[in-house]
Design goal:
Structural class: alpha/beta
Protein name: D-malate dehydrogenase (decarboxylating)
Number of strands: 12
Number of domains: 2
Strand content: 15-25%
Largest sheet: 10 strands, mixed
CATH class of the largest domain: Alpha Beta
Catalytic activity: (R)-malate + NAD(+) = pyruvate + CO2 + NADH
CATH superfamily of the largest domain: Isopropylmalate Dehydrogenase
Distance between the termini: 20 Å
Bound molecules: 1,4-dihydronicotinamide adenine dinucleotide, magnesium ion
Strand order of the largest sheet: 2-1-3-12-11-4-5-10-8-9
Pfam families: Iso_dh (PF00180)
Organism: Lysinibacillus capsici
CATH architecture of the largest domain: 3-Layer(aba) Sandwich
Cofactor: Mg(2+); Mn(2+)
Helix content: 40-55%
CATH topology of the largest domain: Isopropylmalate Dehydrogenase
């Protein structure tokens, strides 16, 4: 039997509640399948660790993580005690950058049993592939002068390597799905980087003639995701555009508490990191009412990445059955606890 060694960082707030719940579901799914098992190693890094040691993780943290097959992370942040830029850059962004997790993948799908805030939510199921390392979020620029003379310059950086990598990943993903890629652009307003983005999309697209291809300006695309989300399969986007589109994706699904995400090292050189879209939710932490579905669906993405798509599908089916029976946490308008939702999902795993 294959054993996967997973580094677990529950983090802060509800991360410490939803991660153990997801581990229970993943262990049960592995047991039922019989081909593989997980060996979990918990790292207590995050804001409490910072308050004790002055660091979000130890100096050799990245080296430690490299020894694992994958990383399963909850959420990080205690905004009342540690500034968000310290907690974010000291752990999450550090891991994403140093372990070269260049691609961020976030699905959005209309789930059975979960009403979308859209008035006519047709049966949508799309995935946003977001470039995760450069673009508008490159640390390039500066500020000079002060007062009325103050100037701020932020450079967007698009490398051919990074852009091609994101496009190619999107096309490969589309081949395994409904065979269509939409590129998020804005070459009618942004004069250098986005025409370049379009050229690379066209060039890489020539290698994938069997895949349908379209290019939409980001403003139109945002409107389409509200009006006709069912028209999309895979969307490839730069760092900023992808960030915005994926929050929109989470919103039209019904709650940020269910949205999953993966930061992928697609070459397999270092571990990838699987973490839900939501944060540490200090407003509800410790009450046992956090929605575990985002973390559990994130676990499904880890199974998909490891090559067990059939097991991942079983987990998603169990989530949908649980929702369809009205077993929902308060963020979805229900009265169930995290424990009750988790137990129901485990019961529906077959
Ligand atoms: P948040 O996602 O933690 O919470 C936003 C709202 O959604 C809150 O009302 C919360 O109760 C609710 N919510 C989120 N996840 C939920 C779940 N699983 N079940 C039920 N309700 C849920 O975002 P917020 O409040 O902006 O940030 C709180 C802290 O988390 C900050 O320190 C922030 O920096 C951090 N954060 C960390 C992320 C990560 O680790 N990847 C991502 C986003 C925020
Ligand atoms: Mg965001």
């Amino acid at each position: 039997m294959k054993t996967y060694r997973i580094a677990v960082i529950p983090g802060d707030g509800i991360g410490k509640e939803v991660v153990p719940a997801a581990i229970k579901v993943l262990d049960q799914a592995a047991l039922l399948d019989g081909r593989f098992q997980f060996e979990w190693t918990i790292f207590p890094w995050g804001c409490e660790y910072y308050l004790e040691t002055g660091k979000m993780m130890p100096d050799n943290g990245i080296e430690l993580l490299k020894q694992y097959d994958q990383i399963f992370l909850g959420a990080v942040g205690m905004p009342n005690l540690v500034p968000d830029h310290v907690s974010l850059w000291g752990l999450l962004i550090k891991i994403r950058r140093e372990l070269q997790q260049f691609i961020n993948v976030r699905p959005a799908k209309l789930l059975q049993g979960l009403p979308s805030p859209l008035r006519q939510p047709n049966d949508f199921d799309f995935i946003v592939v977001r470039e995760n390392s450069e673009g508008e979020y490159a640390e390039s620029g500066g500020r000079i002068h002060s007062g009325q003379d103050e100037v701020a310059i932020q450079n967007a950086v698009f490398t051919r390597k990074g852009t091609e990598r994101a496009m190619r990943y999107a096309f490969e993903l589309a081949k395994t799905r409904n065979g269509h890629v939409t590129s998020a652009t804005k070459s009618n307003g942004i004069t250098y980087s986005m025409p370049f983005w379009d050229e690379v999309f066209t060039q890489v697209g020539k290698e994938y003639e069997e895949v349908g291809q379209a290019s939409n300006h980001i403003d139109t695309l945002a409107a389409f995701l509200v009006m006709k989300p069912e028209n999309f399969d895979v969307i490839v986007a730069s760092n900023l555009f992808g960030d915005i589109l994926t929050d929109l994706g989470g919103a039209i699904m019904g709650s940020i508490g269910i949205a999953p995400a993966a930061n992928l090292n697609i070459e397999g050189l270092y571990p990838s990191m699987f973490e839900p879209v939501h944060g540490s939710a200090p407003d509800i932490a410790g009450q046992g009412i956090a929605n575990p579905i985002g973390q559990i669906w994130t676990g499904k993405m880890m199974l998909d990445f490891l090559g067990y798509q059939d097991v991942g599908t079983r987990i998603l089916n169990a989530i949908e059955q649980t929702l369809a029976r009205g077993i929902k946490t308060p963020d979805l308008g229900g009265a169930a606890t995290l424990q009750e939702v988790t137990d129901a999902i485990i019961d529906y795993l077959t």
